Amino acid sequence: MDLEVIKIAENTTNYKSVKNYSHKYKHKNAICGDEIEITLKIKNKKIIDFGYKTKSCIYCQASASLLSRKSKNIGINEVNKFLNIANILFQNNHIQLIKHWKPFDKILKKENLQRKECLLLPINALIKILKNYDE
Q: How far apart are CA 66 and CA 8, in angstroms?
């Protein structure tokens, strides 16, 4: 197991349900049964709070932890730009992420391809939330 994944997953700062959330979504991985629930507070097209709760493996927990920390206080458009390329990071290590999103290089990589669905579960849940976003 990748020690970087464990280190990232250990940060549970946003393992919570956001009070007075504006958006909530529960997503399940049909392959392994991992589950995630994301609660967000979005205001003025910006994620101002991000909480997640999981019943999942360490890979999903790491992805959720990192996504929650990197998405807070960021505009919806900027988050969507990252979400749109996250899936292809497994195939193409030559994609240069901007500095803010660079920590995802540590987990969304070819070496973790077998855990792709686990790592993408939080990302896919956030995609669903933001797809249905309206102020």
A: 7
